[in-house]
Amino acid sequence: MAASSPAPEISMLFLNTTETAVGSRKLGSEAPPSSLPWTPTKLRQFGRFSCQACANPGSAFGLENLMGSEDNVPPGIRSRSQQLSDSLHSVMQFAASKARAGTGVPSGRMMFDGLEYWYIASGGYGKVFGFEIGNRPYVIKIRTRLPKTAQISHDEYLAEKRVLELLNNGPEHPNLLLGVQFCEKLNEAFPPRIGITVFKHHPGTLSNVRSIICHDDRIATRLYAAVIREIASGLNHLHSLKIIHKDIKPENILVSFPGHCIIADYGACEIKENLNPFYHPSSDNIHSYGGIVSEQFCPPEIMQLASNGSYVYDEASDWWSLGVTIYSLITGETWSRETARLFREALDPHRQQCMREAMFRYVCPADICGLVMKMCETDPKERIKDIVPVTGMLINESGGIISDSDAPFMWVGTYPDHELAWNERYGSKQE
């Protein structure tokens, strides 16, 4: 659906940049505006400050960094990052006008500043659209929270913003999704909340993958171990930054064009830092009041309310979710969506035996079954944490080698009409 008429001017649209990497770095004689109304000029200025910051090695992550360097841009011609910055302003205006009218951004196709956006998916987070610039595909996630639901205990806008700041200010991890976020602050003059996040496009998720049909245990072991290894490596990096993901599931594990696994969706994340009111330093865990996220992948301890009515999360919660994600990948099965039944199933003394038998029915190698079981221990203290070295050992013992250039998946066909498949040559030794 195209935007046929310009959206009304927004006088009280705010982007909170007071804590961003861009706002904290010296970019020359002029500093980016902060704590001021973001007029069209200021939003474009923000995009250009992002570009300036990324011109220096090791500096903040912005649109130019996301899209790659642009050499020899002719005078008077907008760079890709400037074009996208201008287009994002128009998208923000359009989304804000829809929020003011009490509706969300419609599905379909939209055109802003020469960029076409096409609808991909919807969820509790809002809507995702795809676009191309410089022959490269990207996605934009648009969140519009209407006034009735603007006040929530867990603010996924600020959660994702803070996580992206932490990730973008450090070395890039190959199994974590990076992005640039624009998000307005909640205020009385403009009650709806608008959040826009730009990511590189990765064409698939683990939910698009079926279990391995292969009677060679060595190949199946290498492939399953490689998937677990990549996701665990990404989780290790998040945990090293004191970030609990809280929503590991097949839909949130993207598969890139080269065939690697990439963790996405940081809206449910919690950070173990004093700035977070839900962090309890004495117990070094998170006491969340925002409800259960993705019940089918939550560990049993989350199903039990703490004495103060909160849900207690720590790193072990993510390892359980990873275990159930791999179980779902192997068997195509998930837990019940009904919470009470789910809790009974998770604590059932026969649960592990049933899970093991289900995986064996899908010809899953015994070593992979054992690793999944260790991730899905009922007692969070018993769950395995050193997963990356274990998967490396499994790959080596099954006759494979680990190479960063090798990926567990491959795409068959031509984009966008291609299909995701297992790369059965993963880890094979070249004679």
In words, what does this structure look like?
The protein is globular. The chain is built from 12 helices and 16 strands. The chain folds into 2 domains: 21-200, Phosphorylase Kinase, domain 1; 204-422, Orthogonal Bundle (Transferase(Phosphotransferase), domain 1), CATH 1.10.510. It is 33% helix and 17% strand. The chain has helices at 21-24, 40-54, 63-67, 80-100, 156-168, 217-240, 300-303, 315-331, 339-347, 351-361, 366-375, 387-397, and strands spanning 109-112, 115-123, 126-133, 136-145, 179-183, 193-200, 204-205, 243-244, 253-255, 261-263, 270-271, 279-280, 285-288, 311-313, 409-412, 419-422. The strands form 5 sheets. A 6-stranded antiparallel β-sheet has the order 1-2-3-4-6-5. The protein has a 3-stranded antiparallel β-sheet with strand order 7-9-10. The protein has a 3-stranded antiparallel β-sheet with strand order 12-13-14. The chain is an alpha+beta fold and 431 residues long. Strand 9 and strand 10 (261-263) form a beta hairpin.
Topology:
Elements: H1 21-24, H2 40-54, H3 63-67, H4 80-100, E1 109-112, E2 115-123, E3 126-133, E4 136-145, H5 156-168, E5 179-183, E6 193-200, E7 204-205, H6 217-240, E8 243-244, E9 253-255, E10 261-263, E11 270-271, E12 279-280, E13 285-288, H7 300-303, E14 311-313, H8 315-331, H9 339-347, H10 351-361, H11 366-375, H12 387-397, E15 409-412, E16 419-422
Antiparallel strand pairs: 1-2, 2-3, 3-4, 4-6, 5-6, 7-9, 8-11, 9-10, 12-13, 13-14, 15-16
Helix pairs in contact: 2-4, 6-8, 6-12, 8-11, 10-11
